[in-house]
């Protein structure tokens, strides 16, 4: 039976010099835990579970070695929404379908049902590939020392964010546009806020001495994020998304905090972390349910999805002195209570009694792992009964909650 690592017991005195010299300045990931795992692997003190998890990571990294790089310029300039160029990130609203057989207009929303025609724009899927590959490859380099992994990760990040001829403009003005209606929507920010903080951690790992990553790369990436952070904070889209009361607002706060922390703006990161606390009181009930997510056609998925943002924010907040994990509202609202709410369905103890087009229990695995590591005994007990993701669990080498299924 696999249980969460007792991390406090792993930093033995003999490993401290190595661990201290190897700690990257990560945003979400607990870098001390990464260094501890790396030390275990180097000293041959790792468990069988850790060896198996590392093998899964390396297998995924080997796949990404032959993929990419990708760029927003890899799309046609014809049919772009008004005001967009090939250097702008463009995605189409996935749940909006043509409402008229001849013209398509107006488009009509069917929640949770992806319109295949929306996939004509490659930026959305390529963005996902950039996020996943750079993260997996940088971690694989960190643990194995194989320079091929870090060089590929650097090339992927450099192509999408830094190289002038291929770099994305640092805004999301044209994300999730609706044909015949607009050229972009503020809720399109979710395309980045869901996973972009993993790229920040990938770069933090590469900055710890990876072959293929240079000081010029760091300067270019910092410049991109400085402009992007400014857009998130000052644009009407960024402000509207942050004010959203469902998972969009939770993710927006988390993303802004992560970017701010990466840039060294701890005051802004702390402000965003503190802003998460009243959201817990307002949008998580005393029994742990999240009513706005339960109203969706994919209610289990979106309940887990919103928790992904809360738990990642809790990890960011811990680095700037804000205890999001430990916060409890006046009626008992908390992240841990929200995790308790999904545990029975995720562990198979009860069926999920709310609308769900495609129930997959394994999607809750990472948030339950995170809750267990944060001291939730219910989560610790449930872990053995939560199914492993089809691609395998990476928790022991990547101990931060990630999206384990597909969403748009």
From TrEMBL:
Keyword check for Cytoplasm: no
Annotated SUPFAM superfamilies: Chondroitin AC/alginate lyase
Pfam families, per the entry: Alginate_lyase
Molecular function GO labels: lyase activity
Record bears the keyword ATP-binding: no
Keywords: Lyase, Signal
Superkingdom in the source lineage: Eukaryota
Domain Alginate lyase: 74-352
Signal sequence, renumbered to the chain: 1-21
Transmembrane segments: none
GO cellular component, one term: periplasmic space
InterPro entries: Alginate_lyase_dom, Chondroitin_lyas
Name of the protein this chain belongs to: Alginate lyase
Higher taxonomy: Eukaryota, Fungi, Dikarya, Basidiomycota, Agaricomycotina
């Amino acid at each position: 039976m696999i249980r969460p690592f007792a991390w406090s017991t792993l930093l033995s005195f003999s490993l401290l010099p190595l661990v201290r010299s190897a700690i990257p300045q990560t945003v979400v990931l607990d870098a001390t835990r990464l260094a501890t795992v790396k030390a275990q692997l180097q000293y041959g003190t790792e468990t069988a579970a850790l060896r198996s998890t590392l093998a899964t990571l390396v297998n995924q990294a080997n796949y990404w070695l032959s993929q990419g790089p990708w760029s927003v310029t890899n799309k046609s300039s014809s049919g772009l929404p008004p005001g967009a160029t090939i250097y702008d990130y463009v995605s189409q609203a996935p749940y909006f379908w043509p409402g008229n057989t001849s013209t398509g207009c107006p488009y009509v929303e069917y929640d949770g049902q992806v319109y295949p025609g929306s996939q004509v724009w490659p930026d959305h899927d390529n963005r996902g590939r950039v996020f996943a590959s750079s993260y997996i490859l940088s971690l694989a380099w960190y643990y194995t020392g194989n320079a091929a992994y870090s060089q590929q990760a650097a090339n992927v990040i450099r192509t999408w964010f830094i190289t002038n001829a291929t770099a994305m403009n640092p805004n999301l003005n044209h994300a999730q546009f609706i044909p015949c209606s607009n050229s972009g929507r503020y809720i399109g920010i979710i395309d980045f806020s869901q996973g972009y903080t993993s790229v920040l951690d990938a770069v933090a790992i590469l900055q710890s001495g990876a072959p293929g990553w240079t000081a010029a790369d760091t300067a270019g990436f910092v410049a991109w994020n400085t402009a992007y952070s400014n857009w998130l904070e000052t644009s009407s889209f960024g402000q509207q998304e942050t004010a959203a009361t469902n998972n969009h607002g939770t993710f927006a706060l988390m993303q802004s905090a992560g970017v701010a922390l990466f840039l060294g703006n701890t005051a802004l990161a702390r402000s965003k972390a503190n802003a998460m606390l009243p959201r817990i009181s307002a949008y998580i009930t005393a029994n742990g349910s999240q009513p706005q997510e339960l109203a969706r056609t994919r209610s289990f998925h979106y309940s887990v999805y919103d928790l992904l943002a809360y738990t990642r924010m809790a990890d960011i907040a811990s680095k700037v002195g804000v205890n999001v994990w430990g916060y409890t509202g006046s009626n008992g609202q908390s992240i841990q209570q929200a995790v308790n709410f999904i545990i029975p369905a995720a562990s198979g103890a009860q069926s999920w009694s709310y609308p769900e087009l495609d129930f997959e229990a394994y999607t809750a695995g990472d948030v339950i792992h995170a809750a267990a590591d944060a001291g939730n005994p219910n989560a610790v007990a449930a872990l053995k009964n939560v199914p492993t993701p089809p691609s395998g669990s990476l928790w022991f080498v990547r101990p931060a909650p990630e999206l384990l299924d597909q969403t748009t």
